[in-house]
Amino acid sequence: MNIKFTDLYKLVRNKKKLFNKISYLIKNSKFIGGEEVLSFEKNFSKFTGGKYCVSVANGTDALEIAIKSLNLSKGSEIIVPNNTWISTAEAVVSNNFKVVFCDVCLKDYTINLKDLENKINKKTSAIIAVHLYGNPANLSGIKKVIKNRKIKIIEDCAQAHGAYINKKHVGTFGAIGTFSFFPGKNLGAFGDGGAIITNSKKIKDFCLKMRNHGAMKKYDHSFSGRNSRLDTIQAGILNIKLKTYGKTISRRLYLAKLYFKELKILNKINLFQLNKKNQSAFHQFVIRTKYKNQLEKFLNKSGIETMTHYPYMLNELKFFNSNKKLKNSYKLGSQILSLPISEEHKKKEIIYICKKIKNFFNEK
């Protein structure tokens, strides 16, 4: 049996509706802005429970604009978890702030609260809480750590569409939340796309201007901004996908449950240990084992594609000039392995993957 890690074409439901929508928008010359984009912002705001939604060109722009909107003090430090996609740290550097890397919790790979306490100082102005792999970070714990301090929380929800903390959607706990609609995301467009969620009108208005050359309306420039707009075709695609997104999450939850059931008996791998009050979006299903490389080769020979998210930690990149060893994330990339999980995968495929993993460890 050959099992792809993911097949983006198979993931596309309602193909006829999507192609008809694209055709309609092209025929009517609807490419930038307009009702389709406004409709998506309204729909995504309702979906997340955030008061305001500002769509942008991609998830990296969402992070960069989010940081800029907070008007942080010059010379500030922003704390970022060490295991995340590079955009999280890039957004800090591009805003001319110092990025400080924090260790991760090995239960769910989100930010480590103990190390977070150690990293905070007088220069700390913000923390980016990344809901990595779709697993909600410990926002209540973070808020306790920064209690009575003027430190902003930015939520990086690029992998967490449909993730909840006590039935409240991620992205709505801090000052601002950011999302990506890259095609490989659970809620993916047919190209790049991103969004910002906030309950602050002041922040919302700034982001609206920032994405459009500093102007809310054409030629009404308040400051020097940038060009970062979600195009109309992507908004139309996302509007259609959002209507059935509940089924996407339900399927991923079902497949993740299968993995937990089949693999929990193995003592040589570590599975997610998630808070039962929360809901993960299971953008990835990650296992940890010191036999990672051997297991990866074994599964690939068995026709099973796997990936690593991520093969290196951010503080291992020389240009960040951060060589401090962090206990949990030190060489973590050599131990973590992402298994196939998406709504296009079948039960028998997940069972087959688990069977092969069991076979591998039975030989150890």
Features:
364 residues; alpha/beta; Aspartate Aminotransferase, domain 2; Aspartate Aminotransferase, domain 1; seven-stranded mixed beta sheet; three-stranded antiparallel beta sheet; 12 helices; 36% helix; globular
Structure commentary:
This protein has 364 residues and is of the alpha/beta class. The protein has 2 domains: 8-243, Type I PLP-dependent aspartate aminotransferase-like (Major domain) (Aspartate Aminotransferase, domain 2, 3-Layer(aba) Sandwich), CATH 3.40.640.10; 245-362, Alpha-Beta Complex (Aspartate Aminotransferase, domain 1), CATH 3.90.1150. It has 12 helices and 12 strands. Helix 2 packs antiparallel against helix 9 and helix 4 packs across helix 5. 44% of the residues are buried.
Helix content: 25-40%
Mean pLDDT across all residues, rounded?
97
Beta-strand content estimate: 5-15%
Enumerate the strands of the largest sheet in spatial order, edge to edge or round the barrel: 1-9-8-5-4-2-3
Main beta sheet: strand number and arrangement? 7 strands, mixed
Any idea of the CATH class of the largest domain? Alpha Beta
**CATH fold-type name of the largest domain:** Aspartate Aminotransferase, domain 2
Rg, Cα atoms, Å:
21 Å
Count of helical stretches: 12
Secondary-structure class: alpha/beta
Quick recap:
The protein is α/β, with parallel strands linked by helices and 364 residues long. The chain has 2 domains: 8-243, Aspartate Aminotransferase, domain 2; 245-362, Aspartate Aminotransferase, domain 1 (Alpha-Beta Complex). The protein is 36% helix and 14% strand.
